[in-house]
């Protein structure tokens, strides 16, 4: 059992139903408020060297996110997960609920709910009402599947906890930017947070920030920001830091994109999540945020005074790659140094050449 | 051996398609409001305006691939920085239109005034159209259509209709033209009529030997995408179905020595239509049907024709937002395939694993297991790309196809 599975098993064994959610921006506050532990099934790469069970269901041109996710759920076979929730994002992930359903043995079948988040602005006709309907359906499903009851006060309490967690995340990222922590350490912590209760996330981040406050800033290297669906593998992050790069911005789907915006607190899930999805920090997976993406990225680079940008591409992620040429062109026009890397399942053998590229890039932007 | 005699409907199709592309260019030059759409977007809506035309980049990319310029256009997009892993339709389209229509056998598409995509056939299409939205500063209207793991629900239909109403207002505002619902209703009637004849055409595959090949249906589906809502489409499909039925009555069929009746699962390999059909014909094998085309004009998870009598035109158009296979979940795809196998007495299924279409392909391993193990029908999976020939190996594919025919023989013993 790997570290993530142990974390989830601890939650499960403590008597809390664990709901595996994918992709990254499900209604966590709502799930938490019902006494269910939401686990965002993302970032399994460091924990699985191979994906033999997923390979029986997915061709090798599916992205590693999908393949690791299927591997995790099929290996787990209900040992720690008590249910699954999926919302619409990309073409690969939307196929997974039924594939997972077929892959699990009949006696290990999990309750599964699919949830459609409007992929248009909430200002469009019918979008808010449709989201409300979907949320009502989700609440009804959660109440029936886990014998729980929705409570607006509990929801508001969960909303506030998540807001606190997001605030701490921003603080932790600031410390990393100031050289009081290595970004690779923060990324490693973030990888684990998805599998913790928000109360434990807050405690872990408080510890992290507390330790940072005691530290003297390390000498600053060349300031860079990273974009991607996932952070690069730990070895690559360490190679970046070893090459003298200070990662000051994390336009990563499980980091800054996930916690940059906290909606106005509310007891009403429909109002809260309309705000959440409408004003979410732009992510390539959230179609209505596309027009805001480049300005938000440029503003982030400016705020954190990053002079260079590294794209950590996940092979076969169309959502990221359709935007790459445009973003690259715009940033280069502003004099920002750009490095594009690509990661895929099983690329551990090829990290050497990537390290060489990183070193060369670090030398280039230093000049 | 397959007989490659171009039918009258085939000749008619060539004229229709050629004229369609040329007409669009001329009308755009004369000031028509041009909309680029994803294939499922309800084109009948645009018929409600006096001078709005629509173009379908996916269909144009398929045409480019079929005419042998797919790879060169893909390379043009790759040279602009677009990953080789992106859908080849998108790469062809960007390669063509960021080079002023270069290499297009149709002279390219007239530049759009509005882009309309949806996210149920494939989400990446919205990302693809976003590229033009950014580069050319053209408005992009996304239709948010819930994916159907189960047949469409009433609430989903209402949500879709509300978006159609929004789309109509958007076109009115941008084009300055007034929408006429009666003209749209007439276009919808034309589409319903065309679908009826399409089902009649496909039914010729039930004949033994089959009256058609899936390759015929691949080619003939083009005007469903580019001429939806027109009386010409309904008339063409009436002609096609009549001619096909007459040929079957006269015993004129594409593979008279048909020994193997196969079903194809995925988009057509546009660059291989003639070659693949010919080589299979030499083996007395005929791919008589395809999931890509058999779902048109039917309900999700079934081949039964749609019934529209109780629906308004906008509701009907919302109801067929799942008219291709890609918005269907695995269970629905399995149900339809089971019906197809039974009704057409299929001997084997070819699963074409298509690197450019994840939404179609990433269910196939489970679907293949279902067909093979639960329906007891031999299957094979081959690697293809619908428009990028570099990702296809003919010899490798045929080694596997021949193995399928052997396993069908084995099952018959």
From TrEMBL, chain A:
Keywords: Iron, Iron-sulfur, Metal-binding. Pfam families: HGD-D. It comes from the Bacteria. Signal peptide: none annotated. InterPro entries: FldB/FldC_alpha/beta. GO terms for molecular function: iron-sulfur cluster binding; metal ion binding. Gene3D superfamilies: 1.20.1270.370, 3.40.50.11890, 3.40.50.11900. Belongs to the FldB/FldC dehydratase alpha/beta subunit family. This is Benzoyl-CoA reductase/2-hydroxyglutaryl-CoA dehydratase subunit, BcrC/BadD/HgdB. The lineage of its organism: Bacteria, Pseudomonadati, Thermodesulfobacteriota, Desulfobacteria, Desulfobacterales.
From TrEMBL, chain B:
It comes from the Bacteria. InterPro entries: FldB/FldC_alpha/beta. One of its GO terms (molecular function) is iron-sulfur cluster binding. Pfam families: HGD-D. Keywords: Iron, Iron-sulfur, Metal-binding. The keyword DNA repair does not apply. Signal peptide: none annotated. PANTHER family: 2-HYDROXYGLUTARYL-COA DEHYDRATASE, D-COMPONENT-RELATED (PTHR30548), SUBUNIT OF OXYGEN-SENSITIVE 2-HYDROXYISOCAPROYL-COA DEHYDRATASE (PTHR30548:SF4). Belongs to the FldB/FldC dehydratase alpha/beta subunit family. This is Benzoyl-CoA reductase/2-hydroxyglutaryl-CoA dehydratase subunit, BcrC/BadD/HgdB. It comes from Desulfatibacillum alkenivorans DSM 16219.
């Amino acid at each position: 059992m790997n570290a993530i599975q142990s974390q989830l098993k601890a939650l499960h064994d403590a008597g809390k139903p664990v709901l595996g959610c994918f992709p990254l921006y499900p209604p966590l506050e709502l799930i938490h408020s019902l006494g269910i532990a939401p686990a965002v099934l993302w970032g399994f790469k460091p924990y699985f060297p191979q994906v033999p069970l997923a390979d029986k269901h997915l061709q090798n041109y599916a992205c590693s996110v999908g393949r690791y996710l299927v591997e995790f759920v099929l290996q787990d076979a209900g040992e720690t997960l008590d249910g699954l929730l999926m919302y619409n994002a990309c073409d690969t992930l939307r196929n997974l609920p039924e594939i997972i359903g077929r892959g699990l043995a009949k006696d290990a079948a999990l309750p599964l709910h699919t949830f459609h988040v409007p992929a248009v602005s909430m200002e469009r006709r019918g979008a808010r009402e449709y989201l409300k309907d979907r949320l009502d359906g989700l609440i009804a499903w959660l109440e029936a599947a886990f014998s729980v009851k929705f409570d607006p006060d509990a929801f508001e309490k969960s909303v506030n906890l998540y807001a606190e967690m997001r605030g701490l995340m921003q603080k932790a990222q600031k410390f990393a930017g100031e050289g009081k922590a290595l970004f690779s350490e923060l990324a490693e912590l973030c990888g684990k947070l998805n599998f913790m209760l928000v109360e434990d996330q807050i405690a872990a981040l408080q510890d992290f920030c507390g330790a940072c406050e005691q530290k003297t800033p390390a000498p600053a290297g060349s300031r860079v920001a990273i974009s991607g669906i996932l952070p690069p593998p730990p070895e690559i992050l360490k190679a970046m830091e070893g090459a003298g790069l200070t990662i000051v911005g994390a336009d990563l789907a499980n980091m800054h994109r996930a916690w940059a915006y906290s909606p106005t607190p509310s007891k009403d899930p429909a109002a809260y999540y309309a705000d959440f999805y409408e004003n979410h920090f732009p992510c390539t997976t959230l179609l209505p945020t596309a027009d805001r993406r480049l300005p938000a990225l440029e503003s982030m680079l400016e705020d954190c005074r990053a002079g260079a940008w590294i794209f950590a591409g996940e092979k076969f992620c169309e959502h990221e790659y359709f935007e790459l040429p445009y973003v690259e062109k715009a940033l280069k026009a502003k004099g920002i140094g750009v490095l594009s890397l690509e990661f895929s399942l099983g690329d551990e053998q090829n990290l050497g050449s990537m390290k060489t590229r990183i070193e060369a890039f670090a030398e280039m932007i230093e000049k | 051996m397959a007989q490659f005699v171009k039918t009258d409907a085939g000749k008619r199709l060539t004229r229709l398609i050629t004229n369609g592309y040329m007409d669009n260019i001329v009308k755009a030059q004369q000031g028509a409001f041009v909309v680029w759409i994803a294939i499922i977007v309800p084109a009948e809506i645009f018929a409600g305006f006096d001078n709005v035309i629509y173009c379908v980049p996916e269909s144009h990319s398929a045409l480019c691939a079929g005419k042998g310029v797919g790879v060169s256009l893909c390379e043009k997009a790759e040279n602009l920085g677009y990953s080789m892993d992106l859908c080849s339709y998108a790469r062809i389209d960007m390669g063509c239109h960021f080079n002023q229509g270069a290499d297009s056998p149709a002279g390219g598409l007239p530049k759009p005034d509005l882009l309309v995509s949806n996210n149920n056939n494939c989400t990446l299409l919205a990302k693809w159209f976003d590229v033009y939205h950014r580069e050319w500063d053209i408005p992009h209207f996304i239709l948010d259509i819930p994916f159907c793991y189960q047949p469409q629900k009433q609430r989903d239909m209402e949500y879709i209709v509300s978006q159609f109403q929004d789309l109509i207002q958007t076109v009115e505002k941008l084009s300055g033209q007034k929408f006429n619902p009666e003209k749209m209703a007439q276009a919808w009637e034309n589409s319903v009529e065309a679908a009826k004849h399409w089902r009649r055409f496909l039914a010729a595959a039930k004949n033994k030997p089959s009256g058609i090949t899936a390759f015929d249906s691949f080619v003939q589906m083009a005007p469903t995408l580019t001429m939806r809502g027109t009386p010409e489409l309904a008339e063409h499909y009436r002609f096609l179905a009549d001619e096909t039925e007459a040929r079957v009555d006269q015993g004129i069929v594409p593979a008279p020595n048909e020994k193997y009746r196969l079903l194809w699962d995925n988009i057509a390999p546009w660059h291989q239509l003639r070659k693949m059909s010919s080589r299979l014909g030499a083996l007395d094998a005929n791919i008589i049907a395809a999931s890509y085309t058999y779902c048109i004009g039917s309900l999700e998870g079934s081949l039964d024709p749609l019934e529209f009598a109780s629906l308004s035109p906008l509701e009907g158009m919302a109801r067929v937002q799942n008219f291709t296979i890609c918005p269907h979940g695995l269970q629905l795809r399995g149900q339809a395939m089971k019906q197809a196998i039974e009704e057409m007495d299929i001997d084997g299924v070819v699963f074409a694993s298509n690197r450019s279409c994840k939404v179609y392909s990433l269910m196939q391993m489970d679907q293949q297991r279902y067909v093979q193990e639960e329906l007891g029908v031999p299957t094979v999976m081959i690697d293809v790309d619908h428009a990028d020939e570099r990702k296809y190996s003919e010899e490798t594919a045929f080694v596997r196809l021949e193995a399928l025919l052997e396993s069908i023989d084995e099952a018959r013993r």
